[in-house]
Amino acid sequence: MHELGVTFYVVKDVKKVAQENKVDKIDYVKLEIGEVSGVIHDQLIDCWNWARKKEAVTEHAKMYIETLEAITYCEDCHGQYRTIDYGKTCPYCHSENTYLLRGNEFNIKEIGIYEDS
């Protein structure tokens, strides 16, 4: 389960950004995760809900996940297609001379600051 290790990196990075910006509390963290990244969202959120409590700055922070669609490019016909639907084989020319354009990302997209009302 690499979700726990990934979560520790997210907490570390969020804590660093908070310190650099003199922020005491984070309200939420929004991630962009590619649909073929291998990260299991439910497990990641479970790990987050445990790990966030270890740091005061992230103690009450929520996690939101945006899934990025996986797209593959064919070098033979220059077509693009959904990786999940067709895998490595191009649906247009049936070539396997393809590569993943996007869908393997794992990014911290946004960090929301908690503001006292």
Structural overview:
It is a single chain. This protein has 117 residues and is an alpha+beta fold. It has a domain at 3-69 and 102-113: hypothetical protein PF0899 fold (2-Layer Sandwich). It is 28% helix and 31% strand. Strands 2-1-6 form a three-stranded mixed beta sheet, with helices on one face. Helix 2 links the parallel strand 1 and strand 2 (62-68). Helix 1 (3-20) packs across helix 2. The model has no long low-confidence stretch (mean pLDDT 95). It holds the Pfam family HypA. InterPro entries: HypA/HybF. It comes from Faecalibacillus intestinalis. Keywords: Metal-binding, Nickel, Zinc. One of its GO terms (molecular function) is nickel cation binding.
Summarize, please.
28% of the residues lie in helices and 31% in strands. It has 117 residues and is α+β, with helices and mostly antiparallel strands.
Mean model confidence by pLDDT: 95
At the first level of CATH, what is the class of the domain at 3-69 and 102-113? Alpha Beta
Assign a percent range to the helix content. Answer: 25-40%
Which structural category do the helix and sheet elements fall into?
alpha+beta
For the biggest sheet, the summary is: 3 strands, mixed
- Order of helix and strand elements from N to C terminus: HEHEEEHEE
CATH topology-level name of the domain at 3-69 and 102-113? hypothetical protein PF0899 fold
Q: Which band does the percent of strand residues land in?
A: 25-35%
Radius of gyration using CA atoms only: 18 Å
Number of helices: 3
Terminal Cα span: 39 Å
Shape: elongated
Task: Provide the spatial order of strands within the biggest beta sheet.
Answer: 2-1-6
CATH architectural name of the domain at 3-69 and 102-113: 2-Layer Sandwich
Number of strands: 6
Poorly predicted ranges (pLDDT <50, ≥5 residues)? none
